[in-house]
TrEMBL record:
This is DYW domain-containing protein. It comes from Linum tenue. One of its GO terms (molecular function) is RNA binding. Belongs to the PPR family. PCMP-H subfamily. The lineage of its organism: Eukaryota, Viridiplantae, Streptophyta, Embryophyta, Tracheophyta. PROSITE patterns: PPR. Residues 377-470 form the DYW domain. Keywords: Repeat, Transit peptide. The keyword Transit peptide applies.
Length: 470
DNA sequence: TTAGGGTTAG
């Protein structure tokens, strides 16, 4: 038992793990709780939570650690629903959750971006208010669920803070559009006794890139090694590229790619491509797209970005060419999708999908809202319609029914006045929806928070926390 | 003082 639980931690590939697993059976040790938790954990670390669940389910023997192992297996492999389901099973089985279980539950709420659920988990945490790791998980949960004010309160009250607490808060502020506050916090961190690490600096550079702070970004990037002994890694370069590309310093971005000493990956070229779209550099865009498609010939996002760049430049033959290639290769763009939590239920809206039971009412309300917004000065921005990829008659509808607009209207209809409307979506928000939501918060006197895959937009009284730079 | 579970980026 002692041997296996030690060796399982050291196994270096899945096939070794499977061999150890059968050898455990051979020796009849599979019911030992130490061996079982180590096995569950090992499967989880190799990204196989279902295998971990099999190990868990096949024996009745278990203790709190075995439960915690299997819950964390799903929490860490981004299956928040299953983690929460197992947590409920654990409570029904008569086990009292403690710090480790609650940390996994918080991490599950974080990955699901469900603020109300996270608040419920927070209630269980009160009696452990001195636990550092648990507090860190709480910080992350509040930051990622759009409750950055709550995170700030907890952070201020934390007696002990380690590098994870500081890094979580710095990145959290930046993701929520509070870049300058994030940089101020980094200054306070330097005054404290905690040394920044690799991840802290990523948060700092992220803050700079999302606020267009080019000089600050360079300064932190160039001083990483000297001040903190941290060699800039691939991710730091990616952040710098993002900073330069967004700010329109495309030549500097290309210089950085050439000098960085890493092979640029698809995400880096994609960053550059997006900068080319924003700053209308067709030639560089073509080069970047070519590089991406060499690395990943099926990357739908790049085809669409490139085709929009061509469309904006009026190069309709090239637009048609891309559409043809996409058709031939069977490449489809991912449909936009938004989620909103109302009455403990998640409501999903997908572009072009009218399956929501209230969809007709929502469309009527949306139409009326658009008319009121137009009277208040809203002009739909047709630049964001994918002219090339949609049929002529769908053009206006495709913009009108972007999933976040449907979710916003649904929130206005169903959430009490004064309650913040929180939406999560799978793609980045388009400029037209951004304008629409800004104006809607002013007209309807509501606060709206939208989380996209990269960051948050806090809309209030006609403005957004991103300062229209995202 | 021979063994198992939790937090930060992309």
């Amino acid at each position: 038992m002692f041997t296996y639980s030690s060796v399982l931690r050291a196994c270096g590939c899945v096939s070794h793990l499977v061999q150890l697993h059968s050898s455990i059976y051979k020796h009849g040790l599979e019911s030992d709780v130490f061996v079982r938790s180590a096995l569950i954990d090992a499967y989880s670390k190799w990204g196989l939570p279902q295998e971990a669940l099999c190990v868990f389910d096949e024996m009745p023997t278990g203790d709190l650690v075995v439960w915690n192992s299997v819950i964390s297996a799903f929490a860490q492999n981004s299956n928040g629903h299953e983690a929460l389901h197992l947590f409920k099973r654990m409570k029904r089985a008569g086990f009292d959750p403690e710090q480790s279980s609650l940390t996994s539950v918080l991490s599950a709420c974080t990955s699901l971006a469900l603020l109300e659920l996270g608040r419920q988990a927070h209630v269980h945490v009160f009696k452990y208010h001195q636990d550092l790791i648990l507090n860190n998980a709480l910080l992350d949960m509040y930051c990622k669920c759009g409750g950055v004010e709550d995170a700030n309160t907890i952070f201020t009250r934390m007696a002990d803070k380690d590098v994870v607490s500081w890094s979580t808060m710095i990145a959290g502020l930046a993701q929520n559009g509070y870049s300058r506050e994030a940089l101020k916090l980094f200054d306070s961190m330097k005054d404290s006794s905690t040394q920044p690490n690799y991840i802290t600096l990523l948060g700092v550079l992220f803050a700079c890139s999302h606020a267009g702070l080019v000089e600050d970004g360079w300064c932190h990037f160039r001083s990483m090694k000297k001040l903190y002994g941290i060699e800039p890694g691939r991710e730091h370069y990616a952040c710098m590229l993002d900073l330069l590309a967004r700010a329109g310093k495309l030549n500097k971005a290309v210089e950085l790619i050439n000098e960085m000493g890493f092979e640029p990956d698809g995400a880096m070229w994609r960053t550059l491509l997006d900068g080319c779209r924003a700053h209308k550099n067709v030639d560089l865009a073509m080069h970047a797209a070519e590089q991406i498609l060499k690395l990943n010939p099926q990357d739908a996002g790049s085809y669409i970005l490139l085709s929009n760049i061509y469309a904006n430049a009026g190069r309709w033959d090239d637009v048609a060419g891309i559409r043809k290639v996409m058709n031939e290769k069977g490449i489809k763009k991912q449909p936009g999708c938004s989620w909103i939590e109302v009455g403990k239920q998640i409501h999903t809206f997908v572009l072009g999908d009218g399956s929501h039971p209230q969809i007709n009412e929502i469309k009527i309300q949306l139409e009326s809202l658009i008319q009121r917004l137009v009277r208040a000065g809203y002009v739909p921005d047709l630049n964001f319609v994918l002219k090339d990829l949609e049929g002529e008659e769908q053009r206006e509808d495709s913009l009108r029914y972007h999933s976040e607009k449907l979710a916003v209207v649904f929130g206005l209809m169903n959430l009490p006045k004064g309650q913040t409307i929180r939406i999560r979506k799978n793609l980045r928000i388009c400029g037209d929806c951004h304008l629409f939501v800004k104006l809607a918060t002013k007209l309807e006197k509501r606060t709206i928070v939208i989380r996209d895959p990269i960051r948050y937009h806090h809309f209030h009284d006609g403005a957004c926390s991103c300062g229209d730079y995202w």
